[in-house]
TrEMBL record:
Family label: Belongs to the GMC oxidoreductase family.
Annotated protein name in UniProt: FAD-binding protein
Keywords, sorted A to Z: FAD, Flavoprotein
PANTHER family noted in UniProt: CHOLINE DEHYDROGENASE, MITOCHONDRIAL, GLUCOSE-METHANOL-CHOLINE GMC OXIDOREDUCTASE
Organism field: Ruegeria sediminis
Cofactor(s), names only, from the UniProt record: FAD
One Pfam family hit: GMC_oxred_N
Entries under InterPro entries matching the protein: FAD/NAD-bd_sf, GMC_OxRdtase, GMC_OxRdtase_N, GMC_OxRtase_C
Domain Glucose-methanol-choline oxidoreductase N-terminal: 258-272
Amino acid sequence: MTETLDGDYDYVIVGGGTAGCVLANRLSETPGTRVLLLEAGGNDRYHWVQIPVGYLYCIGNPRVDWMMKTASEPGLNGRSLVYPRGKVLGGCTSINGMIYMRGQAADYDGWRQMGNTGWGWDDVLPWFRKSEDHHGGETDLHGAGGEWKVTTQRLSWDILRAFQEAAKEFGYLPTADFNTGSNEGSGFFEVNQKNGVRWNTTKAFLRPAMKRPNLRVLTHAITDRLILDGKRVTGVAFRHKGRAMRVSARAEVLLAAGAINSPKLLELSGIGQPDRLSALGITPDHELPGVGENLQDHLQIRTVFKVSGAETLNEKANSLTGRLGIALKYALTRSGPLSMAPSQFGMFTRSDPALATPDLEYHVQPLSTDRLGDPLHPFPAITVSVCNLRPESVGDCHITRNEADLQPDIRLNYLSAERDKQVAVASIRQARTIMTARALQPYAPQEYLPGHSIHSDADLLHEAGNIATTIFHPVGTCKMGSDPMAVVSPDLKVHGLSGLRVIDASIMPKIVSGNTASPVIMIAEKAAGMIRSSSG
């Protein structure tokens, strides 16, 4: 028996993650507007969500991670990757690396040139600034007093400063701000924290809004499908505490379930590729061939170098006295390694000098491990991860059965494009070159991964397949545009349907040249502005 949720709602938001929390706040600012937020996960009141280094204990933790995996990837020598997605209020901002990054102005100007009017750099900058609370105060480029806190990190490592000096020797110069529209150069990442504690979209946007009587939040509410009346989406069918429920939306349903789960819910609702849906026993109600296609992600290649005479997290974390010292420092000052973002130092460079803007992003870490989730190495070392910001390899994400509790089939097709193979090899060679700089010689760096004996392009590409991993930036599966494969229009309404918008990373037609959390907040801010304008 299906019950109808009590109460009438103007907007039903599916997904209480990065975008959903922003939407819930902005739409409930109007007292007469009733908003319901459905989140399949639980609340974010978990100590490892709050402590920045706790991402190590959140990824792979079923309490806060959906525990997804990719399909076997030929470009990664047949490996399947763990694919963390936030199963918690705040979504991936509750388990991610906390790096504040917008991407490049050229990314958004590229969206506009693809026909997405209103999405150029000059159009989106005000929406970045709207919610920003930047440590440097208000400027033409940054906002102050907003909900999304941007601050500097509360620790430093000599080995990372030496890496910055090393980069300078090869013309990669320091920059004071990665978020001006050009992120070229090197520097220490700004992070979304407050006083050494993670700052997610739950704290920033949702919790203050939950005091309003016109906003209702249901956690552990698993959406099964959207409800259609002809070509209008009128509500949502979901499960809550073992009960089958349905709820109507007088104005719109806002799908903010992320780049993996938004296309999944569309397909479960009969929206997508008719032949694919029919084969799964789902009645095709609306043909949209682009649903689940155009999946893009950043693949990082984790080169590791042993060092001598340098303090790294490896030796601290592998000794009892080191761990006690780390815990005491955090307890007393909210600083030190427990306040660490996964990557402290970043750099944006070109794999080819002929490129107009940087296409490589470095994440340099004072720690090392064979793979994410494994124990740290027993020797001092640093990780010099480098990723291709603009991959040409494109994958897809589709359901394989008509069951909402199953993860879809996630295929990234990493390193399938010839250009991506060339960039992978070039990026390893560039990282190796920087490690030969005079500034690093006092630390006697020795390559550990992929290994100094590997030289040919073919061998380097093979080893890239062994050591590369996702940087957790899936986008594009409900892309914005007007071409036959586009799913939403520039106002984020689903083509051919009324009463439904998609508002999350899935709408990006091309992946941005940097980390994706803050661009998704911008997307939600802009979407909320469009919704409020259209509702009068």
